[in-house]
Amino acid sequence: MIHTTVGNIGHFFVILSFVTALVSTIAYLLVALSQRKADSAPVEFERAERLEYAEVTSAGAGRTSIPVSSKRPRTDKKTPSGKAAVAGKAGEPRNDWRMLARWAFYVHGVAVVGIVGALFYIVSNHYFEYHYAWSYSSKALPAEYIISSFWHGQEGSFLLWIFWNAVLGVILINTNRKWEAPMMMVFALVQAFLASMILGVVFGDTLKIGSSPFLLLREAMPDAPIFATDPLFVPEDGKGMNPLLQNYWMVIHPPTLFLGFALTLVPFAYCMAGLWRNQPLEWIRPALPWTLLGAMILGVGIMMGGYWAYETLNFGGYWNWDPVENAVYVPWLIMVAALHTMLIAKRSSTGLKTAIILTIAQFILILYSTFLTRSGILGNASVHSFTDLGLSGQLLVYLFAFIILSVFLAARKWKLIPSDEQETSVYTKEFWLFIGATVLCLAGFQVIATTSIPVYNSILESFGKVSNLALPVDQIAHYNKFQIWFFAIIALLSGIGQYMWWRKVENRNWNALVTPAILTLLISAGLIAFGEVRNPVYMALLVASVFAIVANGTILLGVIRGNYRLSGGAVAHIGMALMLIGVLFSSGYSRVISLNNSGILISRSEDFTKNDNKENKENVLLWLNQSERMDQYQLTYRGQRIEARDVPGYFPRSWVQLIEGDFHGIALRDIDVNGKVYHKKGDTLALFPENIFYEVEYREPSGKIFTLYPRLQVNERMGVVLSPDISRKVGRDLYTYVATAPDPTAEDQWDKTETYSVALKDTFFLNDYVAILDDVVRTNDVDGTELGPNDAAVKAQVRVLDKNGEHILSPAFIIKDRLVGRRAETNEELGLRIQLNEIDPRTGKFTFAVNRKQRDYIVLKAFEKPLINVLWIGTFILVIGFLMATVRRYREFSKMRNKGMA
C-alpha cells in the first residue's frame, strides 16, 4: 500500500511555508518603507539615547561613566501605561500590513512544524515507498537513530535550519517590536530562500527548484526495472543509516549546530535593520546578546562534532581540518571577532564599521559554507560533504543575493557613520579589542583561503583554464603551522585586553602586568619541565595560554568581589586558554604505545609499508586468548562480541546464529548477562548486526583489569568502518582501535581435510600443535541431538598443546535410529576443526578428520592522549562564560527596551 496522503500533506506545507515566507517578506517591506521617515526623524533623540546607554553600561562595569548631554530632549514624561513617552514616539504606527506580515510568519511557522511532523511520521512508520525514508532509515534502527535519520539527508538538514529560524523569528516578533519590520523582513526573506531548497518543483526538463523530502521512490528512481513490472512496489526495508552516524552525539550535534546557523541570522538581521533605518549604531544593543548566544551555541555544536569524531572515527583525534569542519569553524571565528568589535563600537567609528562588516561576513560565510558542503564542489576533498542534488545554482543565487543586498545597503549608509575625533591610542581598550578581532579574522582567512581551493579550480575551469592548485597533502600540518601562532597571539591579547577593559593599565603604566607576567613564567617553566615540552612553537603557545589564565584569573577575582555577573568575559577567556593547553598536549604530545617489538611485519599492504613501514611499527598483533605485552599493559584479545537491543552490554557472537538479510538472530544457548537470562536457547532476538565489538582485556601493572570494546561496522554502502573505544583517566585517555581484522561477515575458509588414525594415548602432530588422544567415553549429552534409548554416542577427548597451554576438543560420534552421525568441534583460538569419523574396534584405532583455518586475530593501535580532559573542561568553562555574558547583556537590553530606548 502506498501512503500518499501524508506525503501530499507534507508537500502542501512546503508550498505553504514558501508562499507565506514571501508574503511576510513583502508585507514587512511595506511596513518598513512606511516607517523609514518615522525612524530617521528623531536624530537628536538617538544621540542622547546612545549616550545614556554608554553611561549605564560603564557604570555597571565599574568604570568612569560618560556624562549625558544636558541638551537632549526631555523624553522622560510618563505615559498612563508607565512607559516613557518616547516609546510611543519610536513605535511603529499600527496598520494592516504589519498584521498581515506577522500572521503570515506565524502561519509559516505552523507550516514548518507541519513539514517536520509529516516527514517524521513517514520515517518513524517506515514508509519505505518514500525515497527519503528508504535512503536514511531502516527497521533495525532504535528510536534515537530514527530521530537522527530525520536530518541525515540534505532535505532534512535544510528543514532543521528552517525550523530553528522560524522559532527565532516568532521569539523576535514578540520581544522587540521596535525593530520588528526591517529585521523580520530579512528573516522572512531568508526563510523564503531556505524553503525553496525543499520545494521540489520542476519546470520543464531543465529548471528545478529545491529537492522535496516527500518524493516517492518510484518518482526518484523512475528507471528502476522493478517499477516497470510493479508500480506499487514498496521495499521491505530501508538502506539504513550511515554506520558512522549511529552515535548518540549525532542525535544532539546537528540540532545544536543548525541552531547556531540560525542564530547567525539574528545579528545580521539587526544590522540590516539598523542600516535600513539610518541607525548604524543602535542595532548593536539588541543584537549583542543574540551574538553572544549564537557564538556559544555554534561553538558548542562545533565541539560536539569534534567529540563525535573522537569517539567514532579512527584518525586518532577530534579535529582533522577537514574542509567541512573548516567551513563551520571560520564563521564562528568571524562571529567572535564581530562580537568584540560590537563592544567597542559605541566609542569608535572604526569599531562600528568593522562590526558592520564582520556581522555581515559571519552570516555570508554560513551561506558560503552551505554552498561548499552541499554543492558537491568539494568532491573527494571531504568525507563529510553532501553529494550535489542539483541545487548548486540555487545555492549560488542564495549566496549572491545576500552578498549583493548587504553590501549595497552597507555602502549606501556608510556615510552615516561619523569619524573619530582623535586616533585610538594603544593605551585604550578599544585598540586591544580591535587587534584581537583582527587576529581572529586573519586566522579565519588563512583557513578559508586554503579550504576554497576546489572553488578556485572550478571557477578557472568554467573559463576553460586548467588549474594546478591542490589542497595540502598534509592538511593538519599546514593549518597547525599558522593557527598555533594566531592563537598564541589571541591568548596574549585576551589577557592584555582584559586588563585594558577593566582599566588596570592606566596613565601609560604597564606595571600592573608585571605580576601576571612573573607568575606566567614560573608556571610555564614548571609545565615545560614536567611536560617535557621541547618544541619552541609549543612553548610559545603554552606561555601565552598560561598568561591568559593568570591575567583573566586576576581580573576575575577582582570582579567577583564587586558583581559576579560582569565576569563572563574573563571566564570565557580562561576557558579558551584551557582549551588551547588541552589541544597542545593531547595533540602535540599524543604517544603511540602499540609499538611492534616482534621484528615481524604485520602486513605487506601499502597502508602498512608506506612511510618507512610506519603502521607495521605502530601496531600490535593479538591472537585470540594469547596475551601480549604493550607498553605497561598486558593485553589479551578475548574474541568478537555482538549487541542485542534488549540485552545490556555485549556477549559472544558465537551465542547466536545471525539470520541473513535480517536484523535478528537465533540464540544457540541461553543469553545470560550478570546471572540474568534474557533469552532462552532457540529464541529469536533483535540485534545490531552491523556492529562487531572486539573485546580487549587490559591488565595494569597493579593487577587491575579493564576492558575496551573497539568496534567494526559492516555496511553495504560504507564497507568496513572502524571506530575506537576509549579508557578515560584523569590525566590522559587511552585511545584504542582495531586497525585491521579478518572480515567477520566472510565464511570460514578451511584448508584441505587431513586424516589421522590413532589409538588411545597416542600423540599426533597437527602442524604447529601437539595432540594427544586421552580417552573416548560414552555420553548422553550431545548439543543439538536428542538421544533415544536405542541410540548411542561417544565423545573423544583430544588434548591439543600450544605454547600458551592446552585445549580439550571433544568431537562426538553418534548412532541414532541406526544412522551414523558426527558432530565436529571447532576451536577458534587454535583455528582447528576436528571430527571423529570412524571407530575400528578390531584395531582400537580412531580416525579423525582435521581442518585448519586462519586463527582469529586483530591488529590493534593505541595512543595515550595526555591532558585531553583539560580541553573538555575548558570547553565547559568557555560555555559558562558565554552564558554569563549573554544573560548580562540581555538584561541590559531589556532594561533599555522597557524604557523605550531599544
Short description:
The protein is an alpha+beta fold and 902 residues long. The chain is built from 23 helices and 29 strands.
Describe this structure as you would to a colleague.
The protein has 902 residues and is an alpha+beta fold. Among the domains are: 1-41 and 79-242, no CATH class; 247-311 and 324-440; 754-853. The chain contains 23 helices and 29 strands. Helix 12 (284-312) runs antiparallel to helix 13 (323-344) and helix 21 (568-588) packs antiparallel against helix 23. It is globular, with a radius of gyration of 34 Å. The two termini are 57 Å apart.
Q: Could you tell me how far the N terminus lies from the C terminus, measured between alpha carbons in angstroms?
A: 57 Å
Summed over residues and divided by their number, the pLDDT gives a mean of: 86
Classify the oligomer.
Answer: single chain
Low-confidence parts, pLDDT < 50 over ≥5 residues? Answer: 42-93
Number of strands: 29
The percent of residues in helical segments reads 40-55%
Key traits:
single chain, 902 residues, six-stranded antiparallel beta sheet, 29 strands, 23 helices, alpha+beta, seven-stranded antiparallel beta sheet
Topology:
Blueprint: H1 4-40, H2 43-60, H3 85-90, H4 96-124, H5 131-136, H6 143-149, H7 154-175, H8 180-196, E1 201-203, E2 207-209, H9 217-220, H10 225-229, H11 249-276, H12 284-312, H13 323-344, H14 349-374, H15 392-413, H16 429-451, H17 453-462, H18 475-501, H19 514-530, H20 536-562, H21 568-588, E3 591-592, H22 606-617, E4 620-623, E5 628-630, E6 633-642, E7 651-652, E8 656-658, E9 664-667, E10 671-673, E11 676-679, E12 684-686, E13 691-699, E14 705-708, E15 711-715, E16 719-723, E17 725-728, E18 732-740, E19 754-758, E20 763-766, E21 769-778, E22 792-802, E23 805-809, E24 812-816, E25 819-823, E26 825-827, E27 832-840, E28 845-852, E29 857-866, H23 868-898
Antiparallel strand pairs: 1-2, 3-29, 4-29, 5-6, 6-7, 6-13, 8-9, 9-12, 10-11, 13-14, 13-15, 15-16, 17-18, 18-29, 19-28, 20-21, 21-22, 22-23, 22-24, 24-25, 26-27, 27-28
Helix pairs in contact: 1-4, 1-8, 4-7, 6-11, 7-8, 7-11, 8-11, 11-12, 11-14, 12-13, 12-23, 13-14, 13-16, 14-15, 16-18, 18-20, 18-21, 19-20, 20-21, 21-23
